[in-house]
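JOB MANIFEST
job_type = single_chain_structure
chain_count = 1
residues = 299
[input]
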Amino acid sequence: MNYHNPVLLKESVDALAIKEDGVYVDVTFGGGGHSREILSRLGENGRLFGFDQDPDAQENIIDDSRFVLIPENFRYMSRFLRFNGVRKVDGVLADLGVSSHQFDEAERGFSTRFDGELDMRMNQKSKISAKEIINSYTEEKLAEILFLYGELRNSRNIAKTIVEKRGQEKINTSLQLRKVLERYLPKAKEHKIIAQIFQAIRIEVNEELDVLKEFLEQIPNLLKEDGRLSVISYHSLEDRLVKRFIRTGLFSGEPEKDVFGNSNEPLKRVGKLIVPTAEEIKLNNRARSAKLRIATLKK
């Protein structure tokens, strides 16, 4: 399986401050790049748990007695770690977004470059695919997800056009969708706009922002006292949630203060935001929008 070169590999694993006998979690196993790097720093008593709901990830499983791959969505992280006898861990790493492997498989429907069935499911067992969303969501609901998740100002017009065209013929493939929306894709901005449209649909299919919130909410109870969280995000919607949760322990509003003016945020930031070097971006174009944030428990 052709999986991407891991983005910010050294930096994201350095962020975990690995202890040789520690217990770590890689919630986005994919091709196993980050997991292999973590294992290379663990001693014989260290343990690593990987999560990946994509069946293709099973082909990259690491033959190492210290490693367990859990084929589930990482929104259920704590539940499956408890099932494996683990209640607290020394570090959690998340490399969010879609892997190059998923983008490169035309039939998965993630890519704007290939024609393929509109699928976009990270978990092939999920009931709802991109095709269902495009062909059955109301105009209002389509406009809402295009605006919220694609940050498209003309979301209402795009949704109206989709609904009009699907009334004439079902929209089943990425090329069909592209043709339907041609008038909204001026040459200079074509790739950017279609990428925003695909991003919005993909986030809805996989409930990506809900999954991220559920994952982050588990971190304060899962980390040991000096445990670390290392998260790489690729677009502003994800990064905003990660940044906000690290700062306040909330996704909206501000934390309540006690009578002395102290608030009770569970996490604190470690270091500054880390972004890839120009050299890494040159070698791996996928790295261009990556942002790494690190946190630990607030004492």
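[summary]
The longest helix spans residues 190-206.
The chain has two domains: 9-99+208-297, 101-206.
exit_status = 0
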